[in-house]
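User: tokens in, sequence out, please.
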């Protein structure tokens, strides 16, 4: 296994600037404890030319590309036919958005901008297959993912492709889908594309992951009886449905038994509940649970009740956390509370956190702050630079205080 050189490293972690799948292939098996990540969502954002790569097909094929192009910043008309050399995929006044090889069916493009959600999911699970190898048997994988409304003006809805159905047909053939007819039309306009669900079903039924929980990250919650809301989701002008204010965080594991320390994230019980537990014990209240117990075992049971009450309660699988804009990045970043909650619960103190789609590096910064080791992968070099600056600014002092050698390697 050849070595990959990090873009930078601290004593606790390393950031690799490269494609998630390629870098993951070079990481040792069973070396990380928890993966916290948010891949590009389907049909939402253009993450730049740097993130484009060839997916599938025959690696030995002399590809013959059919392109979907758009004019680049130099302007011009869109009537010229794209001409291309073997490796050159950006042509004069045209920018290549994606391409299919006419011979082997390989697709060239960005993860997240595939013609169909099914093809996107194929690519995602390919990456998570490698994540599975890298994850320890006791580990957890948390994937934050959200949906898209068909025809909602994103890459696919906004007329990005001139001949949409022919691209979808190619995608269906390439994804080796037995009944490609459904992909010719896709989801009806205004329907959710059900991308998270397609992904989860594939991960569980084809890839053998255990989907332990679907955590709902609520950015804003509606308290109907109080006629109030709490939180700060992105405002929407939509009038024929409720504004979308939450996202999935899927919790996958490799094995039924895995590391999870609920104690670290329990919420303190309300004063009233604590008082009630105290009253019960004081009055030696006997109920069905203590019936038939000896005096000693009743005492022990009451102590357990009291201790349990003081330790707090399971917070549940809906977590309200406000979004926090990050000025350097043009994409959605995690609010630090998300990785903080997940690391506290699912990463041992001497464990390692991995984010293969690091973005602005929020999970990595939080891992460093919590004293966990970390590994980050990000394909876009501009974002790698953002992460580096963020480490210098946000955790520089902390690192100095710990007398760690800092940023010793530059790729
Ligand atoms: C939604 S953002 C992640 C945001 C991150 N959770 C944060 O808090 O900043 C997804 C990131 O995946 C990166 N990306 C896209 N394709 C990739 C690939 N093939 N390999 C690695 N990173 C990729 C994008 O450049 C983008 O920065
Ligand atoms: Zn080919």
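Assistant: Sequence out:
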């Amino acid at each position: 296994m050849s070595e990959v050189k990090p873009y930078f490293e601290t004593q606790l972690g390393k950031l690799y600037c490269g494609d998630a799948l390629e870098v993951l292939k070079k990481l040792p098996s069973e070396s990380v404890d928890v993966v916290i990540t948010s891949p590009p969502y389907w049909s939402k954002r253009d993450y730049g030319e740097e993130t484009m790569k060839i997916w599938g097909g025959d690696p030995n094929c002399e590809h013959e590309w059919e392109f979907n192009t758009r004019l680049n910043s130099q302007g011009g008309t869109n009537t010229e036919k794209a001409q291309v050399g073997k490796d050159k995929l950006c042509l004069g006044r045209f920018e290549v958005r994606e391409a299919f090889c006419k011979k082997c069916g390989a697709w060239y493009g960005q993860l997240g901008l595939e013609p169909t959600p099914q093809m996107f999911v194929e690519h995602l699970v390919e990456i998570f297959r490698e994540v599975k190898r890298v994850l320890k048997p006791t580990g957890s994988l948390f994937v934050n993912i959200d949906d898209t409304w068909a025809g909602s003006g994103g890459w696919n809805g906004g007329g990005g492709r001139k001949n949409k159905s022919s691209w979808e047909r190619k995608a269906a053939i390439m994804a080796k889908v037995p009944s490609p007819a459904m992909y010719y039309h896709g989801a009806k306009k205004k329907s959710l594309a059900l991308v998270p669900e397609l992904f989860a079903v594939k991960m569980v039924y084809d890839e053998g992951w255990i989907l332990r929980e679907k955590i709902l990250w609520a950015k804003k919650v509606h308290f109907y009886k109080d006629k109030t809301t709490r939180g700060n989701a992105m405002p929407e002008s939509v009038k024929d449905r409720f504004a979308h204010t939450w996202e999935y965080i899927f919790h996958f594991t490799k094995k039924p038994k895995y590391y999870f320390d609920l104690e670290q994230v329990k919420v303190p019980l309300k004063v009233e509940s604590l008082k009630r537990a105290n009253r019960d014990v004081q009055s030696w209240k006997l109920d069905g649970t203590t019936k038939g117990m000896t005096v000693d075992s009743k005492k022990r049971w009451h102590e357990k009740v009291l201790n349990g009450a003081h330790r707090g309660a399971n917070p549940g699988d809906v977590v309200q956390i406000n979004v926090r804009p990050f000025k350097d990045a043009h994409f959605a970043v995690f609010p630090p509370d998300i990785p903080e909650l997940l690391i506290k619960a699912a990463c041992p103190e001497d464990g390692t956190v991995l984010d293969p789609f690091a973005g602005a590096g929020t999970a990595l910064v939080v891992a460093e702050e919590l004293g966990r080791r970390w590994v980050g992968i990000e394909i876009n070099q501009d974002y790698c630079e953002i992460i580096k600056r963020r480490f210098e600014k946000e955790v520089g002092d902390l690192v100095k205080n710990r007398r760690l050698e800092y940023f010793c390697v530059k790729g």
